[in-house]
Structures are given as structure tokens and as C-alpha cells.
Amino acid sequence: MRNRKSPRSPWHRQSRHTTDKIAGHRVTRNADQLYAEYKEPLYAAPPLLQRMVDAGRLGRKTGSGFYPYA
Question: Which residues in the chain show pLDDT less than 50?
């Protein structure tokens, strides 16, 4: 059984569909703000999400994110 008191990243339950809906750059911006405030590595944006934002794959807004949108 898993220890329920262990620290969890806020991105653990974030689904790919949700991230695509609200645009990856917004999720990354919020993560950067949390990390700047608390300096806690759990609040940093995941590296994969940062690479996708840098590549312009922002979700439904641009037609591609974790999934392609036509």
C-alpha cells in the first residue's frame, strides 16, 4: 500500500487532455510561478511539457499538443 503522506507533485493528476484544453504555456507559466514562490522542485513544470511549449505545441489552440487536433 502506498504511503499517503508522501509529497506529490501537483502535475501528477493533470491529464494530457486537460493540459491540451487550457494550453501548455499557461500550465508552464503557473508552474514557474509556483516554483519561484516556494523553490520546491515538485512545483516545477515537467521537462516534457517545457519542451512541448518551446516547440510551439500548445494544445488545441495550435492544433497539436499531446494529441493532434485537426
Answer: 1
